[in-house]
Amino acid sequence: MERLLTADEVAEYLRLNRETVLRKARNREIPAIKMGYRSYRFDKNQLDDWLKAKAETRKVKPQSQEVKKIDLRTYPLGIIGGLSRTDIYEGR
C-alpha cells in the first residue's frame, strides 16, 4: 500500500475544495479511511478506481424514451404562443 493522502492532497488531486472532499468522505460518496474522530485518509489507488467507475457510469446512456411532439400555436406576427397545462396534457 502506498502512502495515504490527506484531505488537502486529495482536494488538490481532484481539484476540489478541501471542505467538499471532507463532506464527500463523511457522506461516503468518496472512498476514505476514517482515522480517529474527525480525520480522514485516502488511498490513491481506491480514488483512481472510484474515478474510473464514475466515468464509466456517465458513459451509459439512459434508455431512449418516446418524445411527445407538441405543436405550438403561431400568431400572425410570428410570435410563438405559450402553453397552458391543459394544452400540454390534452395534446392540443
Looking at how many chains there are and whether they match, the oligomeric state comes to single chain
- The gross shape turns out to be elongated
Number of helices: 4
Compute the CA-based radius of gyration.
24 Å
The biggest beta sheet is recorded as: 2 strands, antiparallel
> β content, as a range?
5-15%
The total of beta strands comes to: 2
How are the secondary structure elements laid out?
Layout: H1 7-14, H2 18-26, E1 33-35, E2 39-41, H3 44-59, H4 85-90
Antiparallel strand pairs: 1-2
Helix pairs in contact: 1-2
Q: Short summary of the structure?
A:
This protein is mainly alpha-helical and 92 residues long. The chain contains 4 helices and 2 strands.
Describe the structure in your own words.
With 92 residues, the chain is mainly alpha-helical. The protein starts with 6 loop residues before the first helix and ends with a helix. The protein is built from four helices and two strands.
Offer a few descriptive terms.
92 residues, mainly alpha, two-stranded antiparallel ribbon, 42% helix, 7% strand
